[in-house]
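Cross-check.
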Amino acid sequence: MTENKESRILRFLGYSIPILLVSYVLSIGPVAAWVLDKNGNAVNTKYMKPIMTFYGPLEWCASNNKFVGDSIRAYIDVCNGTDR
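Predicted model, tokenized:
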């Protein structure tokens, strides 16, 4: 019974961690569309500090890797409805 319970926990973690990581990365687009207008200016400024804190790791990756940065910016533009 212990081995079965351990395998369920490992299987749960094996599925949930990648799903949560992908959800975290994909959630930046809708959040940016909610916070920014079509010109990229902040509309909901009272939420900017917590959002910048939460998405800080993605911003760091985007600033240190051109491909990741371009991909994230393109995804944000698609979610925001802008065409740059």
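DSSP finds five helices and no strands in the chain. Residues 2-26 form the longest helix (25 residues). Passed to J.P. for a second look.
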